[in-house]
Design brief:
By secondary structure, this protein is α/β, with parallel strands linked by helices. It has 13 helices and twelve strands. β3 (106-111), α5 (115-124) and β4 (127-132) form a beta-alpha-beta unit. α2 packs across α10, α3 packs parallel to α10 (259-270) and α4 (88-100) packs across α9. The structure holds pyridoxal-5'-phosphate. Residues 28, 88-90, 114, 160, 164, 192, 194, 221, 223, 229, 234 line the site of pyridoxal-5'-phosphate.
């Protein structure tokens, strides 16, 4: 526990909370409410006393809806036995890693990456080994950068596409190359695709759709797609031999997901998908707004193709990312997350969240760009 790192995002949150007029661009959750028909399904579940324990893997109608969704949207062929409903994507990543590793193993994670991965490796007593994502490659991993970090102890490769905090998606050809490499070294692949429905150009390709020998477990979530962060419903899909182990972990850890939230999730997947398209369009428009401001000021950034983040290069400020963020909060009243919160090699960046309202993004990113113009050497 002493080695468990504190989230750098939480630190920014605490600092920004001291200023009520601060524009908050550090948030990682949708600005939209949960769609009405989803809430109605939850009310109905409660009224009809659907309030008991469910099977560990999740209720059958939800797993059936998931099987249909991953076939339609992710090109993944699965049966209801290959699916586990989890308490958000976060629990899915944790139980999957738990099933795959022994203490002392190494897990490859990207720098930058979602900080919870590092925290999980600490809890599991395994070694996180970072592979770099480079701005010149649009923060998309290369085989060379991953393969050069593999040792005999490497057990798992974690991928995240579309990515937090990168906003980048890994193209199909790169995924194929990465899978070939994983096969050469006999690695498990955990593919975090919780942002699969938030994309701005082509829909992202699922790693598992290209996996030819059953080494990939994919993690999905309702949190971002349906603005359901507080409901805590996610799911994983994978080869049955590993999923059966993950399922056994479900019992002592959480037993099952909230029954009412599972019914809400069924309504989310089987109901009208217009809400998803509307939110996607809103994020795309915000991405255009932010990149337009950055382009006008000639500020380098990773062009977002999905999720709702972009990494902005702040090296021209002449400050560390942490000092830059502190000064942005205290002088400009804008909060963003320092890149080093996502990995030791990512201090050139700050993360701007496109989950914030358009007016806030416009004002906040303009102030950030002006600060870079005036503070820079
Ligand atoms: N994976 C990534 C990359 C995330 O950014 C998040 C949430 O921010 C999650 C997984 C987990 O989300 P949830 O547990 O709400 O499904």
């Amino acid at each position: 526990m002493a080695r468990l790192p504190r989230s750098g995002i939480r630190r920014v949150f605490d600092e920004a909370s001291k200023y009520p007029d601060c524009i908050r661009l550090e948030v990682g959750e949708p600005s939209f409410p949960t769609p009405e028909h989803v809430k109605a399904a939850a009310r109905e579940a409660m009224s009809s006393n659907f309030t008991r324990y469910t099977p560990n893997a999740g209720i059958l109608d939800l797993r059936e809806a998931i099987v249909e969704k991953v076939a339609r949207r992710n090109d993944i062929t699965a049966t209801t036995d290959d699916v586990v409903v989890t308490n958000g994507g976060v629990e899915a990543v944790f139980t999957t890693l738990s099933a795959m590793v022994n203490p002392g193993d190494e897990v490859l994670i990207s720098d930058p990456s979602w900080p919870n991965y590092l925290q999980m490796t600490v809890l599991l007593g395994v070694q996180a080994v970072y592979y770099p994502l480079r701005l010149e490659h649009d923060l998309v991993p290369t085989v060379e950068d991953i393969e050069s970090r593999i040792t005999p102890r490497t057990k798992v490769l974690l991928l995240n596409s579309p990515g937090n905090p990168t906003g980048s998606s890994i193209p199909a050809q790169r995924l194929r190359e990465i899978l070939d490499m994983a096969r050469r070294h006999d690695l498990w692949v955990v593919s975090d695709e919780v942002y699969d429905e938030i994309y701005f150009d082509e829909p992202p390709v699922s790693t598992q759709a290209l996996d030819t020998d059953g080494r990939t477990v994919t993690v999905f979530s309702f949190s971002k797609t349906y603005a359901m962060t507080g409901w805590r419903v996610g799911y994983l899909v994978g080869p049955r031999d590993i999923v059966s182990h993950i399922l056994r972990i479900q019992e002592p850890v959480t037993s099952c997901v909230n029954s009412v939230a599972q019914k809400a999730a069924v309504a989310a997947l089987t109901g009208d998908q217009t809400c998803v398209a509307e939110m996607r369009a809103a994020y795309a428009s915000r991405a255009g707004l932010v990149t337009g401001i950055l382009d006008r000021h000639g500020i380098p950034y990773a062009r977002p193709s999905g999720a709702f983040y972009t990494m902005v290069d702040v090296t021209r400020s002449g400050m560390s990312d942490v000092d830059f963020v502190s000064r942005m909060i205290s002088e400009k009243r804008v909060s963003v997350v320092p890149g080093s919160a996502f990995g030791p090699g990512s201090g050139a960046f700050v993360r701007v969240s496109l989950a914030s309202h358009e007016d806030d993004l416009n004002a906040g990113v303009t102030r950030l760009a002006e600060a870079l113009d005036s503070w820079g050497s």
